[in-house]
Structure to design on (1334 residues):
């Protein structure tokens, strides 16, 4: 068996996929690190080492400016958020003759601006993408640019932990009343004095939220026991989603909003500020989420009965206000500190209070506000650049310079003002503009690194992934060509790739900015192109390909079905990939996948029936064209048995699929759904009897899975040797099972029932799992160290009788099994006969029945360690899950068994096959295997959403917490991708199973090649050793196919996220699905490689063993 | 010979298709508030019974079914009994498969079973009418090179189309469109019916198109 080409090719494929995922995600996921520090009013405004202007120090220390605005302009505020209030909705243009449904419906803004221009302002309010409500609420409350993955410690809950306006309000004694969209309640739990949340999920419901708000809004306002009222209306947004903006319902909704604003404006008093704004806009179809101007531009309206803006000031007002600018403005106007990580720029035109008529004093006040703002932003930048390194250092230095210069000027001017020396208004203006420039450039820098999709990286990522899929497909379909000339292919690919990427890197280094992604992208793309080119070249020059093509045409002409079956399988695969483009199908993915899986199972049955492979012997007098029908009696009995087994396996498959739905979890989107009872840890079950039943069920399922594997090993004679692997199977696995069961028993005992034993229980609940972890690691190490499960019985020169006799004495094997055990020993003879030239075959016949060595369990030498590893992993993963899911793991084992059986029976029924494809695993089965891995992701209680990750897994055995981050992350990863791990590790079984289960003597070979008895003997997996070429080829093909299916699913999900990045559900459904799919692929590929390494280890050990044997033999 | 047979098949299939149409429209006269979605089971049963009646009548008249070997009464009764038994079995098997496919087990068991009855009417009943209650003959027809007449071919096509129609009918169920026909089992029954009608239309034209290639072995 060739080891190097296999490993290199598989790792090469994995590398290509990883590169694609990396490039895509770096463009799609915007990374920001959360800074968990909060501002407070007493933060020092001047740092101690501010000695650059000593002469001013005395003055400034005498009258320290508060970090909060010392003289807040407003003590109360009413904040009305009208979801998706686009800027177009808020404008009024009397010249429009025939207004659309959304035009000219909100007149209140223009009326107020006309009648009292000093009291009101209307701006276009520009949001940052992603323009979805949750992200926007986060955005304007923290004053920062939220991204999809805010790296912080609040993955589990959706609450905002960053410093924000609402928590500042609460801390500074403001009484906040909230009503409307219930997203707020989950984002700011316990922040409100009073809250009236209403469900926001049902997009079709236009009125529940709005009417609920209206019921509470006016009474609350009249009660006067509040400082801040926040009301979030959803009607306009829902109306947009349902009907689009140009619809009578929208007109009705906007008119209603107009009335609401009017009445609220009438109710407020002089010390109150009314803020009305939309959190984002909408497209012409009513969607939002993307970055087009229609989606980002909302309306912002400010009003107060007292003077809002001094009309005499000379500052030109901007028409467009970035959304994050509202945060510092509101904070300063209300006298609370600006949130720590806000990067907004205060809207200076609102700062000077109306009673200041001195122009200079006004401007100084503005400068002061800007100074506080700049100080806070600078402080944030300093903290942030310590935590995260991805802000460009040069820009940071430049900004720091700007900040220091402006601050110095400000202090000088301030001191001058304090000493009543005449102010230089020119300098003051310059200072204000300096601060402006500083704050705007900070915003720009942050936007570039946080809030923009990088379309180039997205496109390059998709191209790389497509290329990887193509390469993977070619490797799987032309495994022999690729394997035989892998050196040339890979050398050329890597060389040209390195050359091209080196050129790009040098070019960038000297002329442009250096970007890691473009170098990686060039490398992979060029390498893929070179690989394909070289492959094409090889293919044309290779005669093998021609032969293969001729063969395919021949079989097609013969009327063999090989051509139609892949078509159906391909269609099912296509449907699976297409289902990743629809949010409904992703929500119902569990059903979709099991639907397709059962269809494939039934399809195999129907397909076999149609071609008469299954039931032909039933039909009397009706002869099929099948050539393998020479001895009818034999075939009849055997085929009938095969048919029964096959039908039973398909039934088992469908049954376990159906049962596995019991273990589902529930997404937010699934309204009518209760999560499975098995998902809750046992200790939370109140009913004692139910708890006991669950416990017994879980323990039974663990024992059953152990027993099944033990039976299997016994049956094939892998249970007798003295190797470490058998030791693991004999003693370590039961010990592991006992450990797990004891741990479950201990952890599910209610704390109050054994008060005296509490200390012991605590100890036991951390000791048992740790022992289990250690046992698991030891087991894995043992299997890798000594994977051979072959039992050698040397020097028994006897007939078959005594062997079986002695074997029965050991009392481990059933009589039927003994027949199987004879096989390996006959195989030994056969091996020896191969070593002698064929002419002497006659003379060897005597030796034929005189074996010198018997070896048991050679037939399953490869699959036994695989099975052991599988069970070890299964036990470990069952430990990491809630107790009830042990049943689900047993089901997974059964389902895998059903698929393997279907595969082996099917392949034994297709008797006429090309020799080169002897071991190859058809697409259909590989697809079933991959679908089962997706399906059991759901059946183990997982969902592709972040809140549903089972964080408890991190604390199994470590209930007091961890000192580092690696171990809990590993445990959670193992827990989340358990199904991917198990099915990836056991993937090579697909190759071995048909050989294990092959019929003991094929009628065909018996009749045609009667003289060659060796063909009659099933040597099971030893066939693989005899044909190392075909073995490694088939293994490569199988792995490449498995990776291809996972990779293509990943590609589909990547494309879905990229194409639908404006979809309403992109951050809720598609992006999490993409991340889970990507990490699932990573885990799968990793464990595929691990299983590959295990097979190679077995192969090495086997070679050594045979070498050891031969000298003994020849003695 | 063949052309006549094809013509006969076209008319027979047309009659069945028209029956389905009539069975869809007829209950408006008898049932208040009748609609295909609203009172789905009424439509389903009317469709089932109409198709069953017309099929039995048609194939008895046409004489497609194999001629009985004996003419005794007991033989006929046994045959009839076996036919009913097979039909019942096929309903149960379809029900089981549909439940394994993910249909609710208890909640709408009646609907699921009615769907199974509909599928059996479109597939098994036609088998019984054409081939008699003879499982081996069915297996022969549903294997490659097993068709012995154009009627067998048409049986293959209509059965395949009904099942595929039902299979595709399950696709819209998870979508969040909130339409009345997305409710279980409406989309599946409609899909099966549509598939069946398509099969009825496709079968004669397909046979006509491939009449040169179709060679049937004699019994």
């Amino acid at each position: 068996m060739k080891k190097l080409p296999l490993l290199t090719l598989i790792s090469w494929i994995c590398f290509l996929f990883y590169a694609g995922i990396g490039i895509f995600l770096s463009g799609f996921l915007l990374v920001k690190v959360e800074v968990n520090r909060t501002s407070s009013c007493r933060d020092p405004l001047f740092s101690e080492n501010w000695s650059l202007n000593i002469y001013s120090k005395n003055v400034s220390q005498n009258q320290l400016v508060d970090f909060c605005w010392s003289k807040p302009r407003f003590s109360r505020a009413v904040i009305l958020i009208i979801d998706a209030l686009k800027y177009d909705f808020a404008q009024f243009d009397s010249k429009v003759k025939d207004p659309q449904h959304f035009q000219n419906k909100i007149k209140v803004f223009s009326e107020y601006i006309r009648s009292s221009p000093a009291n009101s302002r209307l701006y276009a309010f520009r949001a940052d993408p992603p323009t979805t409500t949750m992200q926007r609420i986060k955005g304007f409350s923290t004053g920062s640019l939220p991204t999809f993955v805010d790296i912080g410690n609040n993955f589990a809950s959706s609450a905002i932990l960053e410093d924000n306006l609402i928590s500042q309000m609460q801390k500074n004694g403001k009484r906040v009343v909230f009503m409307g969209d219930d997203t707020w309640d989950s984002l700011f739990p316990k922040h409100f004095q009073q809250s009236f949340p209403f469900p926001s999920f049902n997009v079709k419901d236009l009125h529940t939220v709005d009417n609920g708000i209206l019921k509470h809004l006016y009474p609350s306002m009249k009660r006067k026991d509040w400082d801040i009222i926040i009301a979030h209306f959803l009607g306009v947004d829902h109306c947009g989603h349902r009907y689009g903006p140009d619809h009578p319902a929208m007109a009705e909704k906007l008119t209603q909003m107009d009335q609401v604003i009017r009445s609220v404006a009438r109710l407020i008093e002089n010390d109150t500020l009314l803020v009305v704004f939309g959190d984002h806009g909408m497209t012409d179809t009513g969607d939002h989420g993307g970055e087009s101007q229609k989606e980002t531009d909302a309306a912002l309206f400010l009003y107060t009965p007292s003077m809002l803006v001094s009309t005499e000031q000379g500052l030109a007002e901007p028409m467009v206000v970035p959304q994050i600018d509202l945060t510092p403005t509101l904070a300063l106007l209300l006298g609370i500190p600006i949130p720590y990580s806000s990067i907004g720029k205060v809207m200076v035109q609102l700062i000077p209070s109306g009673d200041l008529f001195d122009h200079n004093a006004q401007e100084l006040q503005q400068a002061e506000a800007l100074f506080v703002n700049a100080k806070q932003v600078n402080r944030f930048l300093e903290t942030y650049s310590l935590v995260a390194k991805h802000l460009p250092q040069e820009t940071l230095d430049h900004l720091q310079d700007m900040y220091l210069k402006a601050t110095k000027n400000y202090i000088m001017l301030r001191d001058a003002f304090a000493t009543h020396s005449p102010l230089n208004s020119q300098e003051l203006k310059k200072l204000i503009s300096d601060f402006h420039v500083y704050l705007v450039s900070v915003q720009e820098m942050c936007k570039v690194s946080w809030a923009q999709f990088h379309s180039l990286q997205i496109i390059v990522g998709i191209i790389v992934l497509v290329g990887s899929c193509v390469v993977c497909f070619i490797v799987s379909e032309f495994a022999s060509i690729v394997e035989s000339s892998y050196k040339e292919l890979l050398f050329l690919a890597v060389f040209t790739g390195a050359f091209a990427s080196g050129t790009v890197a040098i070019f960038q280094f000297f002329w442009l900015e250096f970007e890691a992604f473009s170098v990686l992208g060039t490398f992979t793309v060029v390498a893929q192109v070179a690989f394909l080119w070289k492959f094409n070249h090889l293919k044309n020059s290779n005669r093998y390909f021609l032969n293969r093509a001729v063969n395919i045409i021949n079989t097609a002409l013969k009327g063999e079905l090989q051509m139609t079956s892949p078509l159906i399988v391909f269609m099912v695969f296509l449907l699976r990939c297409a289902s990743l483009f629809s949010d409904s199908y992703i929500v119902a993915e569990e059903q979709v996948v099991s639907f397709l899986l059962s269809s494939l199972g039934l399809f195999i049955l129907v397909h076999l029936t149609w071609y008469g492979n299954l039931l032909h012997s039933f039909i009397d007098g009706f002869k099929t064209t099948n050539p393998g029908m020479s001895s009818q009696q034999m075939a009849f009995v055997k085929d009938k048995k095969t048919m029964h087994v096959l039908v039973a396996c398909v039934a088992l498959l469908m049954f376990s699929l159906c049962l596995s739905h019991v273990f589902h979890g529930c997404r937010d989107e699934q309204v009518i759904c209760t999560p499975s009872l098995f998902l809750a840890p046992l200790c939370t079950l109140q009913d004692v009897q139910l708890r006991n039943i669950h416990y017994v069920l879980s323990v039974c399922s663990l024992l059953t899975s152990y027993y099944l594997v033990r039976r299997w090993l016994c049956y094939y004679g892998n249970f007798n040797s003295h190797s470490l692997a058998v030791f693991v199977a004999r003693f370590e696995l039961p010990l592991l099972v006992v450990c797990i069961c004891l741990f479950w028993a201990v952890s599910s005992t209610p704390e109050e029932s054994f008060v005296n034993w509490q200390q012991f229980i605590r100890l036991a609940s951390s000791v048992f799992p740790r022992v289990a972890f250690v046992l698991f690691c030891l087991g894995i190490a043992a299997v890798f160290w000594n994977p051979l499960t072959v039992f050698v019985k040397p020097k028994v020169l006897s007939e078959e009788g005594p062997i079986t006799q002695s074997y029965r004495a050991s009392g481990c094997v059933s009589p039927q099994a003994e027949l199987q055990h004879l096989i390996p020993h006959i195989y030994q003879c056969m091996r020896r006969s191969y070593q002698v030239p064929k002419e002497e075959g006659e003379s060897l016949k005597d030796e034929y029945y005189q074996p010198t060595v018997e070896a048991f369990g050679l037939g399953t030498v490869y699959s036994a360690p695989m099975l052991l590893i599988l069970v070890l992993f299964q036990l470990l993963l069952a430990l990491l899950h809630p107790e009830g899911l042990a049943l689900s793991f047993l089901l997974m084992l059964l389902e895998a068994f059903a698929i393997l059986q279907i595969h082996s029976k099917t392949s034994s029924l297709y008797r006429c096959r090309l020799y080169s494809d002897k071991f190859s695993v058809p697409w259909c089965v590989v697809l079933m295997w991959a679908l089962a891995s997706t399906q059991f992701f759901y059946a183990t209680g997982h969902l592709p959403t972040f809140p549903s990750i089972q964080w408890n897994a991190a604390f199994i055995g470590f209930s007091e917490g961890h000192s580092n981050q690696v171990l809990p992350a590993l445990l959670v990863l193992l827990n989340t991708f358990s199904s991917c791990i198990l099915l990836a590790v056991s993937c090579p079984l697909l190759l071995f199973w048909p050989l294990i289960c092959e019929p003991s003597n094929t009628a065909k070979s018996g009749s045609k090649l009667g003289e060659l008895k060796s063909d009659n003997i099933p040597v099971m997996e030893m066939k693989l050793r005899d044909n190392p070429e075909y073995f490694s080829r088939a293994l490569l093909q199988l792995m490449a196919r498995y990776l291809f299916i996972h990779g293509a699913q990943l590609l589909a999900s990547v494309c879905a996220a990229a194409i639908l990045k404006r979809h309403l559900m992109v951050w809720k459904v598609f992006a999490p699905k993409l991340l889970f799919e990507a990490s699932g692929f990573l885990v799968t590929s990793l464990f595929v490689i691990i299983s590959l390494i295990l097979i190679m280890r077995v192969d090495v050990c086997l070679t050594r063993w045979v070498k050891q044997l031969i000298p003994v033999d020849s003695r | 010979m063949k052309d006549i047979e094809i013509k006969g098949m076209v008319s027979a299939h047309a009659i069945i298709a028209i029956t389905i149409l009539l069975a869809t429209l007829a209950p408006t006269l008898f049932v208040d508030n009748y609609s295909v979605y609203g009172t789905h089971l009424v439509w389903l049963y009317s469709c089932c019974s109409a198709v069953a009646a017309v099929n039995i009548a048609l194939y008895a008249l046409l004489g497609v079914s194999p001629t009985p070997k004996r003419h005794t009464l007991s033989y006929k009764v046994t045959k009839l009994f076996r036919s009913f038994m097979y039909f019942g079995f096929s309903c149960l098997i379809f029900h089981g498969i549909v439940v394994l496919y993910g249909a609710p087990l208890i909640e709408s068991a009646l609907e699921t079973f009615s769907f199974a009855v509909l599928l059996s009417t479109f597939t098994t009943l036609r088998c019984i009418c054409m081939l008699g209650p003879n499982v081996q003959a069915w297996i022969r027809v549903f294997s490659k090179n097993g068709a012995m007449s154009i009627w067998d071919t048409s049986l293959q096509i209509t059965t395949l189309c009904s099942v595929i129609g039902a299979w595709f009918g399950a696709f819209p169920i998870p979508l969040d469109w909130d339409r009345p026909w997305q409710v279980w089992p409406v989309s599946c029954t409609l899909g099966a019916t549509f598939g069946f009608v398509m099969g009825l239309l496709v079968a004669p034209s397909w046979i006509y198109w491939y009449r040169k290639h179709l060679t049937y072995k004699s019994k």
About this structure: The longest helix of chain A spans residues 1066-1114. Chain A touches chain B through 33 residues (CB under 8 Å). The radius of gyration of chain A is 36 Å. Residues 79 and 896 of chain A are 58 Å apart (CA to CA).
